[in-house]
Automatic annotation (TrEMBL), chain A:
This is Uncharacterized protein. It comes from the Bacteria. Residues 113-216, 390-411 are annotated as: Disordered. Residues 118-197 have a biased composition (Basic and acidic residues).
Automatic annotation (TrEMBL), chain B:
Belongs to the complex I subunit 1 family. GO terms for biological process: aerobic respiration. The keyword NAD applies. InterPro entries: NADH_UbQ_OxRdtase_su1/FPO. Its main location: membrane. This is NADH-quinone oxidoreductase subunit H 2. It is a multi-pass membrane protein. It comes from the Bacteria. One of its GO terms (molecular function) is NADH dehydrogenase activity. It is found in: Cell membrane; Membrane. The gene is nuoH2. Keywords: Membrane, NAD, Transmembrane, Transmembrane helix. GO terms for cellular component: plasma membrane. The keyword Magnesium does not apply.
């Protein structure tokens, strides 16, 4: 007892956070990422590897259900931090300090763990729990101790390999009616969070379809088809993006883009240009700073997905210095060195070559404007140019935001292009293609979310 | 094989492997803390900023966290397979290590030590696949697939590299390979084999540019569903595997314990630490290699190069 309590407290000083961001919460995500980097907390890759779930912004219905599922997948000791409202650095600092305290609170962590112990067998895979039919879980008719088989019909959410089929069961020994409340679902500390089991569908759904259906793959083999949503909770992934895929092995056979939205309207990366369009006075230097940070954010994400952790950290460090610390001396020089290293990496370019260029077979390279490698190059160029304009005090009078003309909402076009680019790629390549486009879902109009384009 | 192995030898082996594995974890944590930590202006208003030194404690805190963490299960997971896989990684790492001489002689001085080493480390294939398959979840399964593809790519060049060293010594006994390097390290006169060995060593320990099977892009891949003690054992096994493949480079290519002044065990440790540091650094300093591309490199470049090296060695020795 004494030993495990000591271990719990010792470990609490370095949590492994999993950050989930809702659309329109980019500012909060950036503040959180900067603070996490400052503390040296290394992010987790999956709910199982995390003990701290950080939710930035206010998720709308679909995303908040996904967050709930992920939360049930985080093993105790665990804690939840919800960052919303006034995005100040102090908000983040206080919230993370509180998380450490709660993780070190041995008594309530034990209560939480004991409360979940009964919910063991129904648990489901972590990774991608998004499912729009999941709402059925919230209707209050599932009582404790009812073994339960999933009941989503309609869509083909089945899967499983080798003829297994997944059974859900909803346990938990706690009535679940009480604490429903849509978005305002707090908890996670002090053992008061007690919904368990039965969510989570990334692998499949026993709802009457016991086995994965089969289909011919690109090599003419008949393989299982798995229906796997990528996102919305995935590290280094655009906030709110969901790509519903049909996988054979790790090759994407079909892809469909959906948006798991968030409440709010802020478009952080476009803000200076939008303000200028509204007639407010914004300097070119201010816009250049935002633009450079935006591209560095994209570069950092792409490098992280490419597995180059050191360089990704550098890009994000530069981004944070531009945005929050605003001490620019040395930044252009440091960026120049960074950009040189990235451009010179033959290994990186070998991996990116030929990706994201429609109509080209993978592996064939052709110098062009579109591919992922070309976009990375362009991001580096644009960042370099923007860094030279940080002190430009003249008023901003264009609408050329980091992803193109802000009025056109260029990310909507990126989302439309995505399924075509992803079909036929392997997961590893698909992740790089998404990171190479890096759509900003803050730009996407709500109408699009409804249409599930 | 004459005298009996002293009792302390297996204990020393275990201790050395654990120390090396831990050192790898600490170095990795420190490296990951570096780029954010060393900006002069920061210290002023950021007392919390963690330096590389505080990052050195991360592996210990992580171990503590996993020790007290709940073990979670996926639906319809094959728990037995996952356990076998998770523990298997540790077991194969230690078994592969028994033929490596720490000072003068290994724990088990087998006549076919090089083959034994190779056979044991291939057990990592099984361990990783079982872990990935057993979880009944997409990302671990994809991670498992990736490791099988990786195995197809690295194993043949790896075996040719090992055989080249054995051929140079005219013996499969690890001790004889060391003895054959009295004049000149194999790394010097068979550099291609050494380079191929290092690449395949990374692939075997799925580390650095070869981390695809546990890659960040598939939510941690094989280990995506592991938590608590399972995850701790898996991570420990991975680090031990890395330590073993680094340690094997020393008797096979770097002259074993040979060196001036210092005793053999110290030379072995120093050389191992150097190789290990290089491998660990590659984890931060290089992007991940995708297997669809590496397969091409492996079969069209690495295997022919390794074979050419083998031919050269055969001609020189013969």
């Amino acid at each position: 007892m004494g030993l495990s309590a000591w271990l719990t407290r010792y470990a609490a000083a370095r949590p492994r956070p999993l950050v989930v961001t809702a659309p329109h919460a980019t500012r909060l995500r950036l503040l959180a990422e900067a603070e996490l980097a400052r503390r040296g907390w290394r992010g987790a890759r999956s709910p199982a590897g995390a003990d701290l779930l950080v939710v930035c912004g206010t998720p709308a219905a679909a995303l908040s259900r996904a967050v709930e599922v992920v939360w049930t997948d985080v093993p105790a000791p665990r804690t939840l931090v919800e960052l919303r409202g006034d995005p100040r650095p102090e908000l983040v600092t206080t919230a993370l300090d509180g998380a450490v305290d709660r993780l070190a609170d041995v008594r309530s962590q034990r209560l939480d763990a004991a409360g979940r112990a009964g919910a063991r067998d129904g648990r489901h895979g972590p990774a991608q729990p998004y499912d729009e039919h999941d709402g059925e879980h919230d209707d209050g008719e599932h009582h404790a101790e009812h073994g339960r088989h999933g009941e989503q019909g309609g869509q083909e959410h089945h899967g499983g390999h080798g003829g297994q089929h997944d059974q859900h069961s909803e346990h938990g020994g706690h009535g679940r009616h009480g604490e429903q409340g849509g978005q305002e679902h707090h908890g996670g500390h002090g053992g008061q969070h007690d919904r368990h089991g039965g969510h989570g569908h990334h692998m499949g759904n026993p709802g009457g379809v016991p086995m994965a259906e089969r289909g011919r793959d690109r090599d003419g083999l008949t393989l299982d088809r798995l229906h796997v949503p990528l996102g919305p909770v995935l590290s280094d992934w655009p906030a709110g993006l969901v790509v519903e895929t049909v996988l054979q092995g790790d090759v994407i056979q079909q892809a469909r883009v959906e948006v798991a939205g968030g409440l709010g309207t802020e478009r952080f990366w476009d803000a200076p240009w939008l303000a200028a369009l509204e007639g407010r006075r914004v300097t070119r230097g201010e816009a250049a700073r935002r633009g450079a940070a935006s591209r560095l954010d994209s570069v950092g994400r792409l490098l992280a997905v490419a597995g180059w952790g050191g360089a990704a950290t550098e890009a994000r460090r530069l981004r944070d210095r531009l945005l929050w610390e605003r001490r620019d001396e040395g930044v252009p020089e440091e960026f120049a060195g960074f950009a040189r290293r990235v451009r010179r990496s033959w290994l990186l370019h070998w991996m990116l070559r030929g990706l994201g260029t429609p109509g080209l077979s993978p592996g064939r390279s052709r110098p062009g404007r579109d591919g992922v490698a070309a976009r990375l190059d362009a991001w580096l160029d644009e960042t370099g140019r923007a860094l030279n304009a940080l002190d430009d005090g003249s008023p901003l009078d264009d609408d050329a935001g980091p992803r193109g003309p802000v009025g056109d909402r260029p990310s909507e076009a990126l989302l439309s292009a995505l399924p075509g680019l992803l079909t036929g790629t392997e997961l590893a390549a698909a992740r790089l293609v998404v990171a190479g486009l890096d759509p900003d879902l803050d730009q996407v109009r709500p109408a699009r979310e409804a249409s599930h384009a | 094989m004459g005298e009996a192995t002293p009792l302390w030898a297996p204990i020393a082996l275990l201790g050395a492997l654990c120390a090396l594995g831990l050192a790898a974890a600490v170095l990795d944590a420190v490296l990951s803390g570096l780029p954010t930590a060393s900006h002069p202006g920061d210290a002023v208003e950021s007392p919390l900023r963690s330096g590389p030194l505080s990052a050195a404690g991360d592996p210990f805190r992580e171990a503590a966290r996993l020790l007290v963490q709940q073990r979670r299960r996926t639906s319809l997971a094959d728990t037995l397979l996952v356990r076998v896989g998770v523990c298997g990684l540790l077991v194969v790492a230690v078994l592969a290590g028994v033929v490596l001489p720490l000072g003068d002689r290994p724990v088990a001085d087998l006549a076919a030590g090089v083959v034994w080493f190779n056979a044991m480390e291939v057990g990592a294939w099984g361990a990783l696949w079982l872990t990935g398959w057993g979880a009944n979840s997409v990302y671990p399964l994809v991670g498992g697939y990736r490791f099988l593809a990786q195995g197809m790519a690295y194993e043949l060049p790896h075996m040719f590299a090992l055989i080249t060293a054995a051929l140079g010594a005219g013996s499969l006994r690890v001790g004889d390979v060391v003895a054959a390097q009295r004049g000149l390290w194999f790394a010097v006169w068979m550099p291609v084999a050494f380079a191929v060995y290092l690449v395949s060593a990374l692939a075997m320990a799925f580390w650095g540019p070869m981390r695809g099977p546990v890659g960040p892009d598939i939510a941690g891949g094989v280990r995506a569903e592991l938590s608590g003690p399972d995850r701790l054992l898996f991570q420990a096994g991975r680090h031990l595997l890395l330590a073993v493949v680094a340690a094997a480079a020393v008797p096979l290519f770097l002259g074993g314990g040979a060196g001036p002044l210092l005793p053999p065990w110290l030379w072995t440790s120093l050389k191992t630490a150097a190789v290990l540091a290089l491998l660990v650094w590659s984890g931060r300093g290089l992007p991940t290699v995708r297997m669809d591309r590496f397969m091409w490199l492996s079969w069209l470049v690495l295997i022919p190069a390794a074979l050419a090296q083998l031919l050269v060695v055969a001609v020189v020795v013969g």
